[in-house]
Each structure stands twice: as C-alpha cells, then as structure tokens.
Amino acid sequence: MSLTRRQVTSAALVAVPVAIAATGTAQAAQRCRTLYIAGDSTAAQKYADAAPETGWGMALPFFLREHLGVANHAVNGRSSKSFVDEGRLEVIFEAIRPGDLLLIQFGHNDEKSADPTRYTEPWTTYQDYLRQYVDGARARGARPVLATSVERRKFDADGNAVPTHGDYPAAMRALAEEERVALLDIQALSIALWQRLGAEETKKYFNWTATEQDNTHFNPPGAIAVARLVTAELLHRRVLAHRDVRRLDEEVPESWITWPAAAV
Q1: What phi and psi, each to the nearest 5 degrees, are found at residue 262?
Q2: Predicted model pTM
Q3: What is the spatial distance between Cα 207 and Cα 229, in angstroms, rounded to a whole number?
Q4: DSSP class of residue 211?
C-alpha cells in the first residue's frame, strides 16, 4: 500500500514545528529541531470520534520546550513492517533534517502472527526492519532512538503486572546495544508503573469507559503518564538536555488534551 498525495501532504504539515508554523521565518527554522515519532496506536494522534482514547505522542509536547517540535507519524495498527511497506517511513525520511530525532516504537502489532502484512519475528525480521529506521535516520544526519513497547494492562490473580510483549523488548534491547542506539526501555518502566498503581488504579489510565474496557490504549491521564516516562528517559539517556524539557515534576492538566476533527 502506498500513501496518497493527500496523506503525504498531511504528514508533512504535521511535521512542521510549532515555532516555525507560528513565525514562518528562516531564523525560527534554524533554532528548531523536530522529534519524529514512528509508531503504533499507543502513541498516535487520536481524533474526536475516538475520544477519550489518547496516544502518548499527543501529550509529549507538554514536556518539551518550544524549540523542539513533535511530528507524530504514529498510526493505529501499524507494525515495524507495515509502516515501511505503506511508505510511511519514506515520508519521514523526506522531511527529516540533520539534528532531528527519530523515536521508534513498534511491537504491539509485530506480534500478530496471523497477519502476514504486519507480523515480524523478534530476532530476525523485527530487527531487520528496525535497522531500516536506524540506518535511514543516520544517513540523513538525524539521531535514531529506540523505545520498547509500552506495556498493556494485565495482572495475574495475585495482583502482579504481567508482561505481554514476549521477546520483542529483548530483541530491541539487543539491537540497540549492537547498533549503539539510545534505548528508552518504556516496557520496563511502564510495567513497573502499573505494578505500583495496582490492578484497580490502572483502570484510570487506560481507555476504560461505560462501553469499553480497553487494556491497551490510554485515556488522557495514561497518555500524560507515559509521555512523562518517555521524556524522563530522553533526558536520562542524554538524548535531550535539561534545556529541552519542562514540567517533569509538575501536574499536566487533562484539559490540555484535545481531539481535533479527523481530516476528510
């Protein structure tokens, strides 16, 4: 599947950093860097028809300074393979510039062995596809950053948070070490957070509504919490500096999350 011209144009518009869009000046363009997100539904932009479902990428800008824009290219249902096969990685590569960041989080849909358009095997094809992101970013002077998949909400009978991603996080960790890529271990950090919160309290972070019990996707509090984890790890791994981040120890109001109407 290839992207339509309309989809490519929309993606390019999303990729414009806020400061540049506001000023339209060459000076602003020189000041700004962009953090691109390649990922799945846990990070993706959600629209009014999906509220209150919220991707953590929607909350990430609240923790970054204005000189660092966010271009969220994450899309529901994509794996490391299907994102490439649909031409979505190429859209990022056409826009990304030296000094930018490419944050890569896949795994949820790579696990779907019954779907050959998305499935990858952790220690072979999954790593092979991830290398395309890493190598492509580096070839364009951008910095790749790997992020293990955020954990689902799953607890055993004793109230222990249970991992759900099999070998995919371990495969990404191994690839990050082999390729010397910064790694954000969001799987480990998120499952530790769910363990601290417990089975009942975590319902307040996932997309649990009167009609849906969704243990994969987030509501505003959950998206904000995961975006905080991502930002703290970007700082901890020295991908970002203190001058790049904000509000790590401050409350971010749920009301800051908005769901625009979907493009026709």
Answers
A1: -70, 145
A2: 0.89
A3: 19
A4: S
